Amino acid sequence: MIRNGLLFQLDVVEYGDAWELQKMLFETRISDKIEDCLILLQHPPTFTFGRRYKEDNLVSNREYYERNGFAVYKTDRGGLATYHGPGQVIGYPIIRMSTYTNDYYQYLRMLEEVMIRTLSGCNITAERKEGYTGVWVNGAKIGFVGVRIACGYTIHGFSLNVNNDVSPFQFITPCGIQGVRVTSLQKLLKKNISIKEICRELADHYSDIFQVQLVSIGINAIIQRFRGGEKFCNATRDIA
């Protein structure tokens, strides 16, 4: 059964603004005022830490990062530390998870599959790594997943390294994995990759895997429909 969904395709959005947008869409979705939706965007240089964050995930302190031009956010997603920057495509599905699966970990596998199929279209063979979330190529991590499930609805999502500088990953312990290597499509293919094309591929594969027909829509149209909503409920589960 093909369902309808909304696609918000944005450019580079400051992390805090994108987080507020997610919360607005989340609340609007819970109150059943909009359909399930997917946001695709990029962030300026930003480090984020999940609810399982530990001090040893930091190579330096917050002030050091901010002095060097990185925003730093402690979030309510699962997982530990990660980096976002221009050239990395990020997907935030705001959906009622039970429509697609009742298994938290199956949901993670579905997000990974979106990235795996997108990379396959670029002639890159990607795989999962037992015991970890995300997507790997030749032992180096290229795709990341960190979500929150609240009231049966999802927030946060996945990120895929495309053209972004991966050197900032050295300033954290990515996903809490000591010694992990990080790569990007640009590094693997030794050329610049079209972000527009990768977004199109991600949206297409997301549509196939989640069996949803995505319709592009502007943020202003949703803001006009948004009339508040219930606050976040307490029944949450965090996925690393």
UniProtKB/TrEMBL annotation:
Any one GO BP annotation for this protein: protein lipoylation
KW Transferase (keyword) present: yes
EC identifiers of the protein: 2.3.1.181
Alphabetical list of InterPro entries matching this protein: aa-tRNA-synth_II/BPL/LPL (IPR045864), BPL_LPL_catalytic (IPR004143), Octanoyltransferase (IPR000544), Octanoyltransferase_CS (IPR020605)
Active site: 175
Residues annotated for substrate binding in this entry: 77-84, 157-159
Entry's localization field: Cytoplasm
Keywords in alphabetical order: Acyltransferase, Cytoplasm, Transferase
Similarity comment text for this entry: Belongs to the LipB family.
Function per UniProt: Catalyzes the transfer of endogenously produced octanoic acid from octanoyl-acyl-carrier-protein onto the lipoyl domains of lipoate-dependent enzymes. Lipoyl-ACP can also act as a substrate although octanoyl-ACP is likely to be the physiological substrate.
Protein's name in the database: Octanoyltransferase
